């Protein structure tokens, strides 16, 4: 095992935490955190937000959310994911550890498939 040292300061904390979660067997969900909009992870039956660094209890379907339209929400999630992909892409460029490369690649892959879903949803909304 290598020691963690100061050389990872470029890596944002939440991306590192996501990588750790995936390493520990967590799965990334297609849902996002109601607080910060980051993708949520399922860890042994609990829903966890890597950015807030705490379990998330999300109240689904508690009634109409009058102020946020579905397309605005999708737009915001899309921006978050694009930001994460950009961040992780920078990490991929610098990373040489094959294990971490594989973890980051998995993250990017997961986000790309989320993006695809979001864009499909947006397409459906605009066709209404
Ligand atoms: Zn959060």
Structural features, described:
With 128 residues, the chain is of the alpha+beta class. It has one domain (11-126). Helix content is 51%, strand content 13%. It is built from 3 helices and 4 strands, in the order H-E-E-E-E-H-H. The protein has helices at 13-23, 70-94, 98-126; strands spanning 27-32, 39-43, 46-49, 54-55. A 4-stranded antiparallel sheet has the order 1-2-3-4, covered by helices on one side. A hairpin with a 4-residue loop joins strand 3 (46-49) and strand 4 (54-55). Helix 1 crosses helix 3 and helix 2 (70-94) runs antiparallel to helix 3. The longest helix is centred in the last third of the chain and has 29 residues, at 98-126. It is globular, with a radius of gyration of 16 Å. Bound molecules: zinc ion. Zinc ion (ZN) is lined by residues 33, 35-36, 38, 49, 51-52.
Question: What is the number of domains?
Answer: 1
- Basic shape: globular
How far apart are the first and last residues' alpha carbons, in Å? 54 Å
Q: What order do the SSEs take from the amino end to the carboxyl end, as H and E?
A: HEEEEHH
- Give the strand tally: 4
Give the structural class. alpha+beta
Provide the β-strand percentage band.
5-15%
- Mean pLDDT level: 82
Spatial strand order of the main sheet: 1-2-3-4
Q: What ions, cofactors and ligands are bound?
A: zinc ion
Helical stretch tally: 3
Quick rundown:
By secondary structure, this protein is an alpha+beta fold. The protein has helices at 13-23, 70-94, 98-126, and strands at residues 27-32, 39-43, 46-49, 54-55.
